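Lab notebook, bench 4. Still working through the backlog of constructs that have no structural model yet. Next entry is a single chain of 155 residues. Request: give me the structure tokens for it.
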Amino acid sequence: MVEEMNKVAFRLRSKHLIFEPLKVDVNWKSLPTNLMYKILRLPSRVHDANAYISTEWKYASYPPDYEELFEARIEKYAELGLIAIKLVEELQELAKLPTVPKTDDWDPKSRLQQAYDKIKAEIDARNQRNQLVAQQMPELLNIKNSNAANSSEQA
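Model written out:
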């Protein structure tokens, strides 16, 4: 019953990213090979990110907060955004196009980098805590086993 309630109460409101560069009318061979490869590889990166997020949703994320799911989304989509911005910068440089001047405080690149850095730090800190607990687990189990053995000997 509770699981069904969670399914109803929790739904992601955004759809997976989709990018299909081959549907765009572009002569891809006119680009330098390395840049063409990076652009044409982007759909594969999007697919990999979506698969990672789906795996986190199915196997690592739990109610009530679904923390791992949202962390995975922030991490992977920020990473994709940074890759896309880098590709745009490379294309602008190649075509000798001017960069768009900033007219406000909004800077997507720095915002994505901040979000990415923050979430990676949180994930790394949790992983370190988990490793520490895993390293201490045998010692903790021995203490509990010793206490249980002592209790049964005394009885």
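Notes after review: The mean pLDDT is 84. Residues 108-154 form the longest helix (47 residues). Flag for follow-up if needed.
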